[in-house]
Design goal:
Order of helices and strands: HEEEEHEEEEEEEEEEEEEE
Low-confidence stretches: 1-16, 98-134, 236-258
Helix content: under 10%
CATH topology: Porin
Largest sheet: 16 strands, antiparallel, barrel
CATH architecture: Beta Barrel
Strand order of the largest sheet: 1-2-3-4-5-6-7-8-9-11-12-14-15-16-17-18
CATH class: Mainly Beta
Shape: globular
Length: about 425
């Protein structure tokens, strides 16, 4: 925490060369299944995201400090409102030489941003976007420390967390047109009100890409994650104090939950490969296949019927808790007319080490394992309503998400439609 604050203050103190920017992002979304389970509950929620950053460039480096926060307000189920805060810094170091034709490399932005779907605020583990050096045969080292937290109302404070992380990423030329990106992240995440999920996670991997000419590129990666929980528990039963109520703002999860816990650690290996085509100069189209494999069947999770509704996160649907095959068609970037867009069509088959049940929690005949077949469609476009000579201004846009999750576990057989109006500004 102290390191991030010091870096941030240093960035703001460099008044002569600092590049200060402020961004605001807001959206209003209608969601016809806001709890993502078999029984639909509609809601409208508003998201407000704000960021301030200051950065400066050295002869062979770029440094930036930033803060950003998000507030998500729910209209019908108002007690689900939460906020997120993140403080961090970003440094990029040039390791060999700089190409004379340096540019703002939009093609590098996927290295700084995790995939963000639909009109949600940018996720809490993402660095703020800035100018980077030429996407040529130059080698770079990226260093991104962060601290952050999430705060909820009392009824939903089991989602609260505190986190600290350090991301190291090395972008290096291998030979010819073959480029490599090596990365390692260590993160500590504390759940103060659900301490069984507090953990330390190590995640490392390598991505290789090779230009094929005429806008085509071949890529592949291998990743590995290891999560170590600070509390060792197994098959723990907490007696529930009753079912949650219904009505506006009236949903109250049980004080206690029914949970199943694994051994103190779990791991997953991820292999992916694909092909991309630069359909537009700054908006590549990519097709990729991803395989998630677990060396053991352990999983730590809160059982889905213990709390009203669910979400896809480390409490209810941690990625370490299932194996999967994923096929994705994706186009992110900037279209002609400076229209920023995010588009994803994905097909997933997720295999869980859990028994599929009906709505009463009774095992299906033959006690099969839970299997989900999932289709996701996510579309978003932001149109530059106003831009000044520096490229700053306002953008307006629309977003639509569709999810169909077919599961032999009745609780998880559902579909979702989301429509949002988005307004974004930066200066």
């Amino acid at each position: 925490m102290r390191v991030a604050i010091v870096v941030l203050m240093l960035c703001f103190s460099a008044e002569l060369t600092a590049q200060v920017s402020v961004s605001l992002y807001t959206s209003s979304m209608y969601d016809d299944n806001s709890f993502a389970f078999y029984e639909k509950r509609e809601d409208v929620y508003h998201a407000l995201f704000g960021a301030v950053s200051a950065g400066f460039s050295g002869e062979h480096s770029y440094h930036q400090g930033y803060y950003y926060g998000a507030l998500v307000l729910f209209r019908t189920y108002a007690d689900r409102t939460y906020n997120i805060h993140t403080l961090g810094s970003y440094s990029q170091f040039q390791l060999n030489y700089r190409n004379d034709g340096s540019e703002s490399a939009a093609a590098m932005s996927h290295e700084l941003y995790a995939h963000q779907s639909g009109p949600s605020p940018p996720p809490a583990d993402v660095a703020i976007e800035q100018e980077v050096f030429s996407d040529s045969l130059v080698s770079y080292l990226f260093v991104i420390p962060q601290v952050g937290m999430r705060l909820d109302h009392d009824n939903w404070d089991f989602y609260d967390f505190n986190r600290g992380s350090l991301l190291l990423r090395l972008r290096r030329h291998v030979a010819g047109d073959l480029m490599s990106r090596l990365y390692y992240t260590i993160q500590y995440k504390q759940y103060p009100n659900l301490e069984q999920f507090t953990h330390v996670e190590h995640y490392a991997g390598a991505l290789f890409s090779h230009a094929l000419g005429s806008g085509w590129e071949l890529f592949g990666s291998a990743d590995g994650g290891f999560k170590s929980y600070t509390a060792s528990m197994s098959d723990t039963l907490w007696v529930s104090d009753g079912k949650p109520g219904k009505g506006k703002g009236g949903i109250k999860p049980p004080v206690a939950v029914i949970s199943q816990f694994s051994t103190p650690s779990t791991a997953q290996f991820v292999f992916s490969g694909g092909l991309s085509y630069r359909l537009f100069a700054r908006a590549p189209l990519s097709l990729s296949y991803v395989r998630r494999s677990n060396p053991s069947t352990d999983a730590r999770y809160v059982r889905e019927d213990a709390i009203f509704g669910l979400s896809e996160d480390e409490i209810f649907d941690d990625r370490y808790g299932y194996q999967a095959d994923e096929l994705r068609l994706q186009m992110d970037g900037t279209l002609p007319g400076n229209i920023r867009t995010t588009n994803v069509l994905a097909f997933l088959q997720k295999d869980y080490p859990r028994t599929a049940t009906d709505l009463n929690g009774v095992a299906r005949p033959g006690a099969p394992q839970r299997v989900d077949n999932r289709v996701e469609l996510r579309l978003q476009a932001l149109y530059p309503f106003f831009r000044n000579s520096a490229g700053k201004g306002l953008s307006v846009g629309l977003a639509y998400n569709y999810i169909r999750n077919r599961s032999n576990n009745a609780y998880h057989d559902y579909n979702i439609n989301q429509v949002a109006l988005v307004l974004s500004g930066d200066w």
